[in-house]
Specification:
two-stranded parallel sheet; flat; binds S-adenosylmethionine
């Protein structure tokens, strides 16, 4: 094919692309976006206070609960508080209809707002329920029970197991040793209060991915990749003590 034919072919392809429904929809989104921007242009501006550090969820990762479970869609607590304080709003009710892991709700509650939230995903609910239980309902003996679990690891001696439910994609996700440990753990927590059970179940949820084959395999792949491309003698990027 000569250059002129190639160019004609490319033009024809580009023309047919723009006629595809997906391109048409994207064009409409772009047009709606431009219309919205024009409509609100009088009140749009660049807020220099919003640094990457303030806006990013990374800061919240130093907080308990948030550093246990990485819910990447979460907002930064500092950003929410800054926005609520910005216009001297008087504390009242706040509704977050997309509550995620509840960052905005807890940030608002911490400065006196009555916070309500709606969240679609059960994991979000697990995160903010656990945080509420720990911050509001936990008693000194509940904390002592957690400490005992951490020190004595009572599930290791458990003779009872609670079967973990599976769905197709979780079948075979764990080694048999890990399934046994998880099921013994689920049985051992049953003798604790509801509050302690909630926190311990959440703690288990937070480590499930790291003890599953998917992460172990990913680490193994990274280690192999690192070994094959790294200079002789250098260490793997991720160590993989459990890789099999
Ligand atoms: C960006 S995150 C919210 C972050 C949260 N506001 C915070 O303070 O960290 C958006 C959340 O909206 C949830 N969501 C999406 N569609 C929803 C719906 N129809 N009803 C309730 N929640 C929904 C998602 O599951 C996701 O957790």
């Amino acid at each position: 094919m000569n250059a002129a034919t190639l160019e004609r072919k490319a033009n024809l392809e580009a023309e047919s692309d723009t006629k595809k429904p997906s391109s048409l929809s994207l064009n409409r989104v772009d047009a709606a976006d431009a219309e919205l921007k024009a409509h609100f242009s009088h009140c749009l501006g660049v807020e220099t206070l919003f640094t990457r550090q303030l806006v990013s969820f990374q800061v919240s990762k130093s907080e308990p609960i948030y550093r246990w479970f990485k819910y990447k869609e979460a907002f930064s607590a500092a950003l929410v508080q800054q926005l609520l304080r910005k216009d001297d709003l008087k504390p009242g009710k706040v509704l977050d209809p997309f509550a995620g892991s509840g960052t905005a709700l807890f940030a608002a509650a911490a400065i006196g707002f009555e916070a309500h939230g709606i969240e679609l995903l059960p994991i979000g609910r697990q995160i903010f329920d656990t945080r509420r239980v720990l911050e509001v309902e936990f008693t000194p003996s509940d904390f002592a029970a957690l400490q005992r679990f951490a020190n004595e690891k009572p599930w290791q001696q458990s003779t009872v197991r609670v079967a973990i439910p599976t769905i197709r994609i979780t079948e075979g996700a764990y080694s048999s040793a890990n399934v046994e440990a998880i099921e013994k753990f689920m049985a051992a927590i049953l003798s604790e209060t509801e509050r302690v059970q909630q926190v311990l179940r959440f703690a288990l949820l937070c480590v499930l991915e790291s003890v599953s084959f998917s992460l172990i395999r990913m680490r193994a792949v990274c280690a192999v990749f690192q070994c094959s491309s790294a200079p002789a003698g250098s260490k793997p990027l991720l160590s993989s003590p459990n890789a099999r």
